[in-house]
Amino acid sequence: MPVTDPRIDAYIAKSAEFARPVLDHLRAVVHTACPDVEETIKWSMPFFLHGAKSAWPRPSSGWKRASRGTGNTRTASGTWAC
């Protein structure tokens, strides 16, 4: 069972009605792909951490991926590898 952050539950609950099922699905996909991913809120939006990598949803460009501490950020075309 994935460990979830209640702040993300609140974020989804406050989102527009049309977006809630999409956000729930996206969250489930991330947890299925990476069962030990950590959820948090950064910059007022959901953020997922896995080891030295982090990812967050970007509406205009799919997923963004960054290596923590390096400052390198790149578009991951909607996918994020564990």
TrEMBL record:
Residue span(s) of domain YdhG-like: 20-53
Biased composition (Polar residues): 69-82
A Pfam family reported for this protein in Swiss-Prot or TrEMBL: DUF1801
InterPro entries: YdhG-like
Disordered: annotated span: 57-82
Domain of life of the native organism: Bacteria
Name by which UniProt lists this protein: YdhG-like domain-containing protein
